[in-house]
Amino acid sequence: MEYLTSGELAKLFNITKYLLRHYEEEQLIQPAFNEVNGYHMYGEAEVYAMSHILLLKQLGFSLKEIKKILDKETNYTEALSDVLIKVENDIKQLNELKTNVQTVLKLNQTENYKLNIEAKEDRYFTFLDDEFVDDSYNIKLKKLANWKDGTMNIKDEISYLIPEDESKVKVMYRSSMLEGDYLFAAGTYYCKKVCIKHEKELLQEIEHFYGELAQIGAKYEEPLLLTEEAQLSAFYMEAMVYSLEVMRK
């Protein structure tokens, strides 16, 4: 059988000899034997063992976790199932990030999204207590930061329910559970995203939104759902992205 020195094994896997020695110190891998001159020699079994260790490392396991797997102290199937869940969540987050970047690029290129028709699922919202909102419907961030309820995170999107007469605007946030103070039912919605720098521009964009609906003879139901796209707005220094929606009749 052909054996490799530590240097040759390291080159085979494109790692440093120091990393290989560290794995030995952590009892993850051991040489097949040591030569009289002190060289650590590795055979085919150690090559497969190193490949396994590096795969587990790539999957996100710590060296301590890898040691438990190799020593059969951890259920391998359960450990891999946990990794699969994490990978799927990472993919979801990366896809969301990709969508946000694409949206920002489009907004930069076209100023505003065009009017779209989109299918939406049921969305439940919880009204934000008046103590967290000032007379201009701005969020009192300091008070919100000290809120002990814990059901809302600042990363959640703030939305506004605007009735036809605009008499009583409601500030709200998405409810994760199938309950809340208000339901925007599943259906088809007229939607548009806008990017603005000043609040007065928002009123103009709302007027433009209704104007576009009138131009195409759209039939829709009030109220208007206005949402702060917090994740998209984070890409801008001095601007906010909002989405406007009304349900198509």
Can you offer a commentary on this structure?
Helices cover 41% and strands 23% of the residues. By secondary structure, it is an alpha+beta fold. The chain folds into 2 domains: 4-70, Multidrug-efflux Transporter Regulator, Chain: A, Domain 2, CATH 1.10.1660.10; 111-248, Alpha-Beta Barrel (Multidrug-efflux Transporter 1 Regulator Bmrr, Chain A), CATH 3.20.80.10. The strands form 2 sheets. An 8-stranded antiparallel sheet has the order 4-9-11-10-6-7-5-8. A 3-stranded antiparallel sheet has the order 1-3-2. It is elongated and about 90 Å long.
Percent of residues in helices comes to 40-55%
Question: Roughly what fraction of the amino acids lie in strands?
Answer: 15-25%
SSE topology string: EHHEEHHHEEHEEEEHEHE
How far apart the termini lie comes to 77 Å
Tell how many strands the DSSP assignment holds. Answer: 11
If helices are DSSP runs of H or I spanning 4 or more residues, what is the number of helices?
A: 8
Query: Main β-sheet, in a few words?
Result: 8 strands, antiparallel
CATH third-tier fold name of the largest domain: Multidrug-efflux Transporter 1 Regulator Bmrr, Chain A
Can you tell me the number of structural domains?
2
CATH homologous superfamily identity of the largest domain: Regulatory factor, effector binding domain
Outline: elongated
Name the CATH class of the largest domain.
Alpha Beta
What is the assembly state of the chains in this entry?
A: single chain
Structural class: alpha+beta
- Contiguous runs where pLDDT drops below 50 for at least 5 residues: none
Calculate the mean pLDDT score and round it: 85
Spatial sequence of strands, sheet with the most strands: 4-9-11-10-6-7-5-8
Rg on CA atoms, Å: 28 Å
